[in-house]
């Protein structure tokens, strides 16, 4: 089954691929690897302060949708994704907040939901004091492609 058909079955419509906010490109293809720049959530705030873990996970899922939109723009079809290799998750949070993994699961779960076993990946989920534009979550990605 094609990934686009899978997205349709899941009721997922990809957003338009976001334009870069500064002096960088949204993605780079090197050989059989697709590197996607960090995609930020529209959710603003800080985990452990004014956002719940679930709100953070929802924000991370929105980052995942933007990653998929960028991959689709880069490749023409998500069927070219052979493997989700790695996600890097950044979570704006208070110093005592420790649920970064649960937050970034919002993106990780989406990748597995969409790609099945090819969606399982290596990952980092780290806390940061601030992210661009005051957003709660940013996630970047590396995909192996055909």
UniProtKB/TrEMBL annotation:
Gene3D superfamilies membership: RutC-like
Matches recorded under PANTHER family: ENDORIBONUCLEASE L-PSP_CHORISMATE MUTASE-LIKE DOMAIN-CONTAINING PROTEIN (PTHR43760:SF1), ENDORIBONUCLEASE-RELATED (PTHR43760)
Pfam short name (any one): YjgF_endoribonc
Lineage: superkingdom: Bacteria
Protein name: RidA family protein
CDD domains noted in UniProt: YjgF_YER057c_UK114_like_1 (cd02199)
Domain named Endoribonuclease L-PSP/chorismate mutase-like: residues: 4-133
